[in-house]
Amino acid sequence: MDVFSKEKRSEVMSKIRSKNTKAELLVFRELRRHKVYFQKHYKRVSGSPDIALPRKKKAVFIDGDFWHGYEFPKLKKRLGAGYWLSKIKANMERDKINAEELKKNGWEVLRVWEHDINSNFNETIGRIASFLQ
């Protein structure tokens, strides 16, 4: 059972953005500081990667833990059946399809979890930068 009314939950969820999240902005800033140039939210390929190098065909997705189903079994228990569970399942399936489509077209794909950025920032930035080189 939700602690908020339907209207309040709708208001709360409407404030969550899909682009330029805190995790993304931290990564963008750090990559630019290290002179790594990239396209952000590249719309010309499947999934609009958060970070893309079109000439090298490299794509990085920064996945929010909740929205992309990190520890999905725990989420299932917490959310039960319903709208949010089906939304997250659909996101996970879409992520898989987009990654397959990119790979089929010769792209390399790296997925990074939001919690990795928050807890292992330098290591995660290093992994992204190495991947993009």
Tell me about this structure:
The chain is of the alpha+beta class and 133 residues long. The protein has six helices and four strands, in the order H-H-E-E-E-H-H-E-H-H. Strands 1-2-3-4 form a four-stranded mixed sheet, with helices on both faces. The N and C termini lie far apart (47 Å).
H/E element order? HHEEEHHEHH
Fraction of residues in helix: 40-55%
Radius of gyration (CA) equals 16 Å
The count of helical stretches stands at: 6
Mean pLDDT across the residues is 89
Task: State the end-to-end distance.
Answer: 47 Å
How large a portion of the residues is in β-strands, by DSSP E? 5-15%
Strand order of the largest sheet: 1-2-3-4
Number of E-state strands = 4
- Model regions low in confidence, pLDDT < 50 over at least 5 residues: none
Oligomerization state:
single chain
Would you kindly provide a brief summary of this structure?
This protein is an alpha+beta fold and 133 residues long. It has helices at residues 6-14, 22-33, 72-79, 83-104, 114-119, 121-132; strands at 39-40, 51-53, 58-63, 108-113.
